Amino acid sequence: MDRLFPIDFVSVCSSEAPEPANVPPSGVYVRGEDLGREFPMGTRLRLRFPLPGGEQVEATGDVLWILDCNTPAVEAGVGVRVPNFGFPYSEVSDMSVWFAYVEIAEGGA
User: Fold this and answer.
1) Is residue 109 part of a domain?
2) Is residue 70 included in any domain, yes or no?
3) Domain for residue 46, yes or no?
């Protein structure tokens, strides 16, 4: 069953915490405490969210890294590498708050 989480579009290319950047995203940062236990490294996740025009986007990606605790700059959560979003980055770059439905993809645990 999927649940709604706040997300940020980020460049997910290493095991480091996300840094704000105006670059096309290679993944998402799913914010929430204890997500590292729920979605351990390597877990395949399915994400669903609407674009500003109402189109629904589905993407699948793998948990690449975990931030277990809140810091002054970043909330706890998991970094998910998404190889291909299938929509132009310009459609999301101006949005400041995003939420996505997240669940473990079939065969992804």
Assistant:
1) no
2) yes
3) yes
Q: Which domain holds residue 45?
A: 3-104
For 9, 35, 47, 101, the CA distances from 4, given in Å and listed in that order, are 16, 13, 10, 4
Nearest to 6 by CA among 96, 108, 93: 96
Residue recorded with tokens 């629904």 = 56
101 has which bridge partners? 4, 48
Nearest CA-CA partner of 25 in 7, 46, 11: 11
Instruction: Classify 37 as helix, strand or coil.
Output: helix
Distance between CA atoms of 70 and 66, rounded to whole angstroms? 11
Q: What domain count does the chain have? A: 1
Model confidence pTM above 0.90: no
- Tens-digit pLDDT string for the chain (109 aa): 678 888 877 765 544 555 544 444 678 888 888 888 889 999 999 988 887 777 788 888 899 888 887 777 778 888 888 877 666 666 665 555 677 888 888 765 5
Rounded Cα distance, 23 and 68, in Å: 25
